[in-house]
């Protein structure tokens, strides 16, 4: 019924066509509307790089690696927990790296994105998505899921037995693994986990930044993601750990901002009402921090100007937040480095799948706090990674 | 006068009795109780501009619930408001970003809202789908369109100085913000339509007894369709405002808003059976919801209890409305008795 | 031809038109990607889909009885949470399952009592319990991480197989067969349909409508509880937010399958087929790697299409049947006159709002 | 062509319907039907169920479009494209089921669809309620609706007032033709008289009335002409002054059928004096809040006890208490000497009380279930094995039994009951009651909305039931019907029993019909205990 693993896969040109047919056929099935022509997600695939000229190493190296690639096509699945700006940044960076590798070594890619639309946290959809990648005999799958450790590892295990390699990205696997204290890699069925910040997620860095800016003094409120999310819990732990190192700093209140801007705004307004004298607002992601920034404007309070005012700090590193930093609306954000995450994912994949390298179980991407001092290069870097028209 | 009770007889009523027969009594009392609790337990409730903030927070839900009330009165339900709101916000934002003047972008957004309402109405009245299903499909369709257009990346870079005013992030004059003004005008206009125009009467007629409406020559299907168009328009207006308040339009902007809008309308006394509801009630219902979250945040209640509180409020509102209905019945009977004794 | 043809008779069974659509869509998807019907793939996607199918079934029972239940999704989520909670704290398997099912049943009973005996509108009641169940799961998940269960046999509920067939198929099969027999063959089922057609008339005819209402919500709650146990077993861990939004999927599935939202019409088969159709559609798109941004539009169109198709098929068949009766009966006019005058009020309202062509259709 | 042969001679022609044909889904509802209506004439439209009357009405009122045919109003051919077109042409309809909107005020209801508007900002947007009220105030007062009542929601009024509101609604505009579909249904004797006087005054205003009714006796002294429909065709038009009930029935059902008759042929079952018979039901001091107070009721074996009273007197409420449909606040019910708790209708059926409810369409039939299923529902255990497993075979056999026994006309007991005629539906409901082997059977308005022939059959069922030793309670608003069938009548007013009339069969036989009738009516109205 299904093709053998390793047999020549369906050529990459027919594949999008099939997607179109699937969608078209369902459409035809449904309304007898042959609306499939509207679905065109890449019939013009050519993998144009963003940079145009990639660094392929020396001539010998290039030809040797090209020989090792043997013109193979890697079939890669990409499963973000939701569709959002952050994951799009990661995906586009990955595309750029993919096209560079293609240009240098002749490797071909087949890329399929599947993400849950409304069901980021429960894992029900993630399970279905990953299983489909297994059924379709993908070579490797990148997963970021908010579903629990136990849920996902079990599927990875089953998939690995079928010959699919799993890579987690933007993950907190190291922290979630129940055996983290003695052996963080125990029971993992992933090839590698590409994340950032070894212990405390972005929260710790944000806390440190605040402490430094405020010189260890001040009251802080935090706006958290939806309560019940592990992500929220970890970032909160990290943040609180950082703050607890400074006795002059206290977290006086927190509220639910649901990871979205308007709820963040509402939560910040309520917190500002109750605690008008705070020095800083920590938004657990950038959107909520931007909501808090608006609340500061609405309350007629002053933003941080380097010496006084309220500091707002978020975390993500979104291109959409850079202007706010430049205008002092958002004091800072923890850039969890979507650019290098995307590139590292592809590099790790290439190293392991093509070159047969053993890769680290936990790979950590450098992170940086972006504020007005470094916003220019940070934005330029992200923008460059997004500029490529490459699509897979 | 938009808020005139529909059943005002010529019986003279003192203020107390007028309150007792007011259909909004239930939600008013609920709101009062909350405000009292807040006042006693949380002095900070009246601090600064908390109440002003509270109103700013709830404007979008309020506008949605005004449209929802009309749909409920005409005997339907609209689950698509949240998704349509997000789609309209996306349309407005994208057009502005592409350089369109604000008012053109807004007109386009409102046209999209009207179109969505029209499709809802036609699916229900011409194709004959149950309202629940038709608007559920519209919810998927509208949010799908936004996802396709944005690929999940929020629309940004459309904010202008005017848009900050429109979003309510900067006041219009004095303490009045543009969204508050819009909400008030919308409430007055829709309230007036319901109470004093032919169309308003027809909304009630269609929701209360569709057969009688048809036999009286009312174009039942068209009236129902208009209710959905009105709801779609409200969704578009809410979307335009929310896009300004939010500064970006993520694809999931509208998630959960339909439930909030329905809850607000029901808390405000609208009936799912049709033929009953008031704009004023919807406005108060939306305020009640906002107040609940406000109290949770101010009191420092762990936000994990937020949803439980929402559920409990719904039940309380139903009970409050039921009690107010009892009070209303008793008062009316008393008056009837008094009237007949006068006659005799 | 005196009686209706076998084909017409089969197609007039609730859910049959959608069954045809389901079969066609399976064939189309299989032709597009042969992996679709691969045993493992089918096993997986059905195993994933079974809890939601159970929710569809629960909602269907409530709808047939003339009500609606919005709380099924989050109640299933909470049930998954309580099951996990019990097992994590060392309860034996049977107790864990009982706790999950009991949670669902408890919520069903609360819904039922509020709706049937306190006469609060079911939409509002279940909207409230939807929020309450979701909130309780959040609280529960903060008490203790709901994962790491090692109780033997628990994961086998969804991951094991008997004779190569996944265990959860047997569970779902038993549940669906029981539900079918209950609805189609027993006194309770008959009373259920009667209540859905007209609660006041059923009440006069000797059906205790409140008991029945309570029964429908309890059944729906219990099914949500079972679904929750399966979710927990399948996922191996339960997080907050599980089940949010599933109420819409469940109701859409029921209606697409041919369960009339007004009550009194439909069958267990219809619920099954409708739920399966939506799940199959999503699976078909996914296995062909269609970008997920298209999913919700396709599903939306499918819902509209499903309902319209079902009705059109039924209309064509009924028209043919009516024509035959018209020829065989001598008192002309009667039948049509009856259609004009003998409708139930709900139908009449439908007739008023429905398009011209369908107005005089028998239901 | 079976056209009315007799042209309207004295009065000028107001409305003429020619050659109207209408098919529904292959069924011919109207077949070249016609009708001629003079100006200022009360014109009865008669026919059995399914004769095509309702279709003609819905065509005239614009709800249905005919396939072919002409409608001529006041000499001009009109096309009735919708309800509004009909109304603006001058044709108004008052439907059998009240078509008022409960949520709206009386005034809004009267003007529904034809609202008067005044200018706001130069545009005619706002409703001009003041002018509407001024325009209609006098007319409303004529029909007993005060101007403060005009502003109250319709939901607060009773049946007669609602009917008056509908009449006002029809007359508020320039109505030339008023169609009344069973206008007396749900009205009491006294209310009927009020309505009839309204009808006369409308005729005097020059309005032509089309009057659809099953109560042929009502026609005499009121209607001018009658047109009879059968099988979608016009059978003929007659002058009421020169015809009789028998003639009309002959036209309606094809042959003179003597047994169908208003007051001519009464079959009365004589009973022994009541003290010699066993008491089946004994209800003491039944109360429900202030709506029902201290009602005592005894029914003996073989006896039919009638409940008389005006609408709102509490008759239906009393029997609902007996059925356990509503909870009583005080009182005891004993059946065959056994005290009943009556928590719900299931318990009532099990104990041996059964009820045929008023309002067949809403409370009687379960339209989407089959005839067989409608019969078995009251006691499903008779068609089930092991107490819960339905047996289709048993159910069918049961239904077939009753079909033969009661003469239910249906080609198939497994066909949808909604497709049967009203009379046959009612028989199926009787079968449903009999299926529980009741000791007491309650008939609440058993002949409402069914045609004359079916009425006679239902009467026979009631009599047979009692003749075989059953005990029955009968509620009928039509006083003649009540007296014809009952052995004894209790009169109710304001939730209480205010009087009793005994030995009715004997009295009727003695020729005292009108005396008893007036006695009952006086009691109902005045409530003096005799």
From TrEMBL, chain B:
Keywords: Cell membrane, Membrane, Transmembrane, Transmembrane helix
Keyword Membrane: yes
Transmembrane region(s): 20-45, 51-72, 102-124, 136-160, 172-195, 279-299, 305-324
Record CDD domains: TM_PBP1_transp_AraH_like (cd06579)
Any one Gene Ontology cellular component term annotated for this protein: plasma membrane
Membrane topology field: Multi-pass membrane protein
Primary localization: membrane
A GO molecular-function descriptor: transmembrane transporter activity
Cell location: Cell membrane
InterPro entries, A to Z: ABC_transp_permease (IPR001851)
Highest taxon in the source lineage: Bacteria
Protein name: ABC transporter permease
Top-level taxonomy: Bacteria, Bacillati, Actinomycetota, Actinomycetes, Micrococcales
UniProtKB/TrEMBL annotation, chain C:
A molecular-function term among this protein's GO annotations: transmembrane transporter activity
GO cellular component, as recorded: plasma membrane
Transmembrane domains' residue ranges: 12-33, 45-63, 94-116, 123-143, 163-184, 191-209, 215-236, 248-272, 292-309
Membrane topology listed for this record: Multi-pass membrane protein
Keyword hit for Transmembrane: yes
Record localization: Cell membrane
Compositional bias ranges of the Basic and acidic residues kind: 331-346
Keyword Transport: yes
Annotated InterPro entries: ABC_transp_permease
Protein name per UniProt: Autoinducer 2 import system permease protein LsrC
UniProtKB/TrEMBL annotation, chain D:
InterPro entries referenced in this protein's UniProt entry, alphabetically: AAA+_ATPase, ABC_carbohydrate_import_ATPase, ABC_transporter-like_ATP-bd, ABC_transporter-like_CS, P-loop_NTPase
Span of domain ABC transporter: 15-256, 269-519
Repeat found in the keyword field: yes
Pfam families: ABC_tran (PF00005)
Keyword presence, 4Fe-4S: no
Keyword annotations from UniProtKB, A to Z: ATP-binding, Nucleotide-binding, Repeat, Transport
GO molecular function, one term: ATP binding
Name of the molecule in the record: Sugar ABC transporter ATP-binding protein
Organism: Cryobacterium ruanii
Lineage: Bacteria, Bacillati, Actinomycetota, Actinomycetes, Micrococcales
